[in-house]
Design a protein that fits this description.
The chain is mainly beta. It is 0% helix and 60% strand.
């Protein structure tokens, strides 16, 4: 399974960006997928997850501003980010958890999001 995150960039405070994650691996069954982020000097943290049942979990820090969407069968994953703040500056990583011959998780390489004040 390979994940390719894209859509990051530089934006002013209050702006918007949409991240996409390309997911390969035709025999891999996704149960949960989502986004995490890591700011300089900080630990990686959950942004939002979506399950194969459509259940969504969003971090309080981005609730009401970020929207996760996608389809685990079609292997599409997006993160719409609105009203961006400087504290949203981080590398954003897409993530999947599921199984093929065994349960596994995979991470994308990350895409940089920089929000200036």
């Amino acid at each position: 399974v390979q994940l390719q995150a894209s859509g990051g960039g530089w934006v002013q405070s209050g702006g918007s960006l949409k991240l996409s994650c390309g997911i390969s691996g035709s025999t891999f069954e996704i149960y949960v997928m989502g986004w995490h982020r890591q700011a300089p000097g900080k630990q990686r943290e959950l942004v939002a997850l979506i399950s194969n049942t459509g259940s969504i979990n969003t971090a309080d820090s981005v609730k009401g501003r970020f929207t996760i969407s996608g389809n685990t069968v079609r292997k599409t994953l997006y993160l719409q980010m609105e009203s961006l703040k400087p504290e949203d500056t981080a590398v954003y990583y897409c993530y999947v958890y599921g199984r093929d011959t065994s349960w596994s998780s995979f991470w994308g390489q990350g895409t940089q999001v920089t929000v200036s004040s």
